[in-house]
Specification:
This protein is an alpha+beta fold. The protein is 24% helix and 29% strand. It folds into 3 domains: 133 residues, no CATH class; 102 residues, no CATH class; 133 residues, no CATH class. The longest helix is centred in the middle third of the chain and has 22 residues.
Length: 425
């Protein structure tokens, strides 16, 4: 049965080539292919486009300008755009109606809009899986967008640029008694968490005044005050050793990007990251014996010249446990969702936070991940929004690029939607 919504006046579509493999089409590139006659006429300027239908990969619009209308169909095949206008134009280049239509789409919806029109693109999936997309009809035609609860969507809308997963998976993997307080002042340690991960986590000592019960530091002195000579008589040998380790760690951290997977190629940072990771491994046993350990959210290095802001401080407990990573691939009907799970001593840790590189935070307890590889994977999932959504149409690519390499290093459990119907989305 014929589709009455599609143009019928011109049965031979015209071809527009894209600029690159990402289906980009700019107005300049369009103009080069339109021909001088079409560009010179300018009679079809800023038309109004109305969505008519989308069938079998073809988007049909009603193209109207100055009380005159033509149906126009757009379809992406391989790396080119097929354009079919019902005006009956027989030239080798596109007609002025098609040019005005495409120019309007590019101007209003962007140079990369046509990537959504590819056979397994966003528009095809939006009609196949309506619950996962929002459709918007405007005077520029039809646009679709993924719903935000999907988080990072493989191929369509990844929140993280393509990563070298095999390189990440080759990163090294994993093979507190309180000290006596004899003064109204005490040395605290601040786990420095840099705003937007501009720096990797560091640890800085800071003296402060204790509360009446000597259970907490109520007022901090300036950063690094704990290393000054005037306080040396208040410090234990462990604290002196810890202060030295903090200093050496900071000298490396302040010169190193705050992300494992997005700053430079991983191989170039391997040695530096290994130094930082090993430094933290040596610091943790000493830190677990300290009674006053806090997190501190640092918004700029300039803050280190001042007294720590109380609003940016939170007391934490440092765990000696190194949690393990595992993954669940949940079948949600039209999509799969890949989610990371954290376990400690064989028990699931729920409600954890992964925003601190190298660490996991759970209910004010900080856990250091067992390896650089684990830290890189946790960072990847965090930057992906917490999980990755995969439409089943894209699963073969996802399995090849992500799932198979991941399964070689981590347990991945497949879970049907019935078993975990209340999870994820």
């Amino acid at each position: 049965m014929a589709n009455t919504d599609t143009p019928s006046g011109n049965t031979t579509p015209k071809i527009i080539r894209f600029q690159d493999e990402n289906y980009r089409l700019s107005t300049e590139w369009l103009g080069k292919q339109a021909g001088t006659k079409v560009l010179g006429k300018g009679n079809w300027h800023s038309p109004t486009l109305k969505f008519i239908s989308y069938q079998q990969g073809s988007l049909t619009l009603l193209n109207t300008c100055k009380n005159q209308s033509y149906k126009l169909a757009l379809q992406v095949q391989e790396n080119q755009l097929l354009v079919n206008c019902e005006c009956g134009h027989t030239g080798s280049a596109i007609c002025e109606h098609a040019y005005g239509c495409l120019w309007t789409i590019i101007w209003r919806l962007g140079e990369r809009y046509f990537e959504k029109l590819k056979p397994d693109g966003a528009i095809a999936l939006a009609f196949a899986h309506k619950n996962y997309f929002d459709k918007k009809e405007t005077t520029a035609g039809l646009d679709v967008s993924l719903r935000p609860e999907l988080k990072s969507v493989f191929q369509l809308a990844p929140k993280v640029d393509p990563i070298d997963l095999p390189a990440i998976l080759k990163l090294p993997s994993a093979p507190a008694q309180e000290e006596t307080i004899i003064s109204e002042e005490a040395l605290g340690y601040l786990l420095i968490i840099s705003f937007r991960n501009k720096l990797l986590p560091a640890l800085l000592p800071c003296m402060g005044k204790l509360n009446k019960n000597r259970t907490d530091i109520k007022i901090f002195n300036q950063f690094l005050s704990g290393v000054q000579k005037q306080y040396s008589h208040l410090l234990t040998d462990t604290q002196k050793e810890l202060n030295t380790a903090c200093y050496h760690l900071w000298k490396v951290v302040e010169k190193t990007p705050g992300n494992i997977i997005q700053a430079k190629p991983i191989k170039k940072l391997d040695d530096i990251l290994a130094v930082i990771f090993d430094s933290w491994r040596k610091i943790l046993p000493l830190l677990q014996r300290q009674p006053f350990v806090y997190s501190y959210y640092l918004y700029g290095v300039g803050q280190l010249k001042k007294r720590p802001a109380k609003s940016q401080i939170g007391k934490i407990v440092v765990s000696e446990l190194s949690p393990s990573l595992r993954f669940v691939l949940a079948d949600k009907g039209a999509v799969y969702q890949l989610q990371m799970l954290i376990t400690g001593n064989g028990k699931l840790i729920s409600g954890f936070e992964t925003g601190i590189t190298l660490f996991i935070l759970h209910q004010q307890t900080i856990y250091m991940l067992a390896s650089l590889r684990d830290a890189a994977i946790a960072e990847w999932i965090h930057r992906s929004g917490g999980w990755i959504t995969v439409f089943k149409e894209h699963f073969s690519g996802f399995e090849r690029k992500i799932l198979i390499p991941l399964k070689e290093s981590y347990p991945v459990e497949f879970v049907s939607s019935k078993k975990r119907k209340n999870d994820l989305l």
